[in-house]
Write a structure and sequence with these properties.
The chain is built from 18 helices and 20 strands. With 538 residues, the protein is α/β, with parallel strands linked by helices. α2 crosses α7 (204-220).
Amino acid sequence: MDDLKILRSKNIYTACSPELTDGYVVVRGRRIEAVVPAEDRDSHPAFKSRADALDCGEAFIMPAFNDYHVHMALAAMMEYFGTIRATACEEEAAKILFEKNKDKDPAKWILGGAWDHFVWPGQKLPSKDTLDRYFPNTPVFSLNKECHGAWLNSAALKRFGIAKDTPDPPHGSYFRDADGEPTGYVHELAVAPMLSEIFSEVTDDEIGDYIKAFAETANRLGIASVADLPLHKILREGGYRAFCAKYPPSLRIHFSVAMFDDDKRISALSEEFDGEIIRFNGVKDFLDGTPMGYTGYLTQPYADRPGFVSEPIIPREALFERVRALDEKGVRIRLHCCGDGAVRLALDAFEHAGKRNGLRDLRHAIEHIEVISPEDVGRFAKLGVIASVQPEHNPRTHFATHPFHHLIGAERMRYAWAFRSIAETGAHLAFGTDYPVVEFTPFKGLFRAVNRLTNELEPIGGFNPAERLSMHESLRNYTFGSAFAAGRESELGTLEAGKLADIAILERNPFEVASDRDALFGMEALATMMNGEFVFER
């Protein structure tokens, strides 16, 4: 019975309830045959043919994590050239990029990033001059942590033809100094065409290799499924084909393409990618940017910019018509909405489509929901819209100086990252990271969702403590919630008989360390199984 595997643990979490089982997970082939309590061992037929089991002791056995919001190719490329997430200043960030890439071809792009100027002295945006000292000739394109802005050196600006007299693109900006010269920082939709041009030089085979490296990282974290989303339209399905052709399956990928892609292409992709490993998951687009960049679309003016609410990236009429047309064809839609104005606009669009086409269980989603108006909270459940949220977007450092205080003000802070308020209406939540915007680990997200604390354990009692979730709710959102959002709850997300055997084994029980920052931040997976096969073992 070579296709039979039995896992033994005192702490088995099925995600069906917060109760843990002391017993066994029986896996036959690709599927879970049963979760057997220890006292029922002798009566289960599997133990008549196989007496031995992999004894995990008190390790925590659970459904594998399903990260419902990542940007794979971009993240892998950024990792290759170096992440500069944990840097204390602009100079340090440039120096780390140089040390990581000093031996690379000087004619090729340097693409490392994930920097955060909000934790640098004075929260000052970086300048091309600093990069020029380290890279006088090599072009550098370094995305910030939100991936809505980029830091370029003079060589990169020259490659793109950006000079003093270059006009800003629609919904984008080339930041300039007092003399009108580009500073090297570009913002929002100024970023997209640059990325497209750079990405066009990467082959499908290279992307397949990037995905393989990405999958290995995911498996080390207990992740067996992800939802891959286009960021600035950076996504190429040829990379999935190359990945599947070159490597054994180790990660399920549910991918979306840009919402305004050609209808024939959308239809063709939905027909081609409908398997257990790679599956087309609909379309995604941006309705706004982020409040931190004053591009989040708000219902009321920014607290520090009277009269200014920003504006939606997609005009209301165009949005309504595209959402209606795609909804009519049964295409799942995901909309990036950070500001409460964008959230309301997306809900209005989904409601309009439902009135025209009839409400159906398509599981459209709104991404991020950094701020929401209280009158819109109940509309998710009413319309059947998924709240696809990323707990690690909560304030992570320096709570007292977090930009939201002066951007949106105290009243709206109450409805920032309002997870419990949305969940209590009966709406479904799906958890993800938004990697590479934040680190690719579910464990920091669990800490943030349960405790609402920064890395410095601030503020006392947690940020909006009424919005805290339990560990069970948080784990379930990261497993079943994401499977439900992808329409795969009958196959994935819980440890139940008949489901695909995607399983994570953690070194510690998250329930026991739910409020222990160091224990959760340092958590490791001991093993990850996908389709009944171990794809990672520590």
